[in-house]
């Protein structure tokens, strides 16, 4: 199990200065990121996860967060419900054809901020994943979000690696 403390400084740098109270992580797995966020401030933390097993594991491991079974294509919350909506290593698993729908749902339930923490490549790059070629893509997620939502503003961005508790990932914080 990931030690939640390892990601606290990274998340503090990404969102610690924002005036927010409700956060949704789309594709939360067992909730490691949300537990890390609970160490920063008393946020209302909700995870949405398609794997029933991960939902049950997350629910049994902590009472600091809520994890619901569901998916990025049909987020069960009203428009603008969360101050911040984020994904971390989730959009990389969504095909280019389905990416707009996923982005639209994240945007829809966000009242103000979107945070995207994903693998980056300037050009669409397929990465073999567990013996398959259509399950993981590196892309320019910043460009995809800016083209899809031209009125959004990039507030800050950065890069994390193993020392920060992440794989080699880029992150982008947008404001609606």
Outline the secondary-structure elements.
Blueprint: H1 5-15, E1 22-26, H2 32-38, E2 44-49, H3 52-61, E3 66-69, E4 82-88, H4 99-109, E5 110-118, E6 125-126, E7 137-138, H5 141-148, E8 153-160, E9 169-175
Parallel strand pairs: 1-2, 1-4, 2-3, 4-5
Antiparallel strand pairs: 5-9, 6-7, 8-9
The CATH topology is given as Rossmann fold
Taking the sheet with the most strands, its summary is: 7 strands, mixed
H/E element string? HEHEHEEHEEEHEE
Figure out the total of helices. Answer: 5
Distance between the termini: 34 Å
Report strand %: 25-35%
The strand count comes to: 9
Rg computed from alpha carbons, rounded to a whole number of angstroms: 15 Å
Q: Can you give the helix content as a percent range?
A: 25-40%
Spans of at least 5 consecutive residues whose pLDDT stays below 50 are none
Structural class given helices, strands, pairing? alpha/beta
Please tell me the total number of domains. Answer: 1
| CATH homologous superfamily grouping | Vaccinia Virus protein VP39
Q: How would the global form be characterised?
A: globular
What is the topology, as strand order, of the major beta sheet?
A: 3-2-1-4-5-9-8
Name of the CATH architecture = 3-Layer(aba) Sandwich
What is the compact description of this entry?
By secondary structure, this protein is α/β, with parallel strands linked by helices. It is built from five helices and nine strands, in the order H-E-H-E-H-E-E-H-E-E-E-H-E-E. The radius of gyration is 15 Å and the shape is globular.
């Amino acid at each position: 199990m990931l030690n939640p403390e390892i990601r606290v400084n990274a998340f503090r740098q990404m969102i610690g200065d924002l005036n927010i109270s409700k956060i949704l992580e789309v594709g939360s797995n067992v909730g490691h990121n949300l537990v890390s966020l609970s160490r920063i401030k008393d946020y209302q933390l909700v995870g949405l996860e398609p794997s029933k097993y991960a939902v049950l594991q997350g629910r049994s491991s902590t009472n600091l967060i809520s994890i619901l079974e569901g998916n990025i294509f049909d987020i069960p919350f009203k428009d603008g419900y969360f101050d911040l909506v984020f994904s971390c290593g989730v959009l990389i698993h969504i095909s280019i054809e389905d990416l707009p729908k996923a982005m639209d749902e994240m945007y829809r339930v966000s009242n103000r901020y979107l945070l995207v923490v994903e693998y980056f490549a300037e050009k669409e790059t397929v990465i073999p994943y567990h013996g398959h070629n259509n399950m993981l893509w590196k892309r320019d997620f910043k460009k995809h979000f800016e083209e899809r939502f031209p009125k959004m503003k990039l507030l800050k961005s950065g890069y994390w690696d193993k020392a920060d508790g992440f794989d080699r990932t880029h992150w982008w914080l947008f404001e609606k």
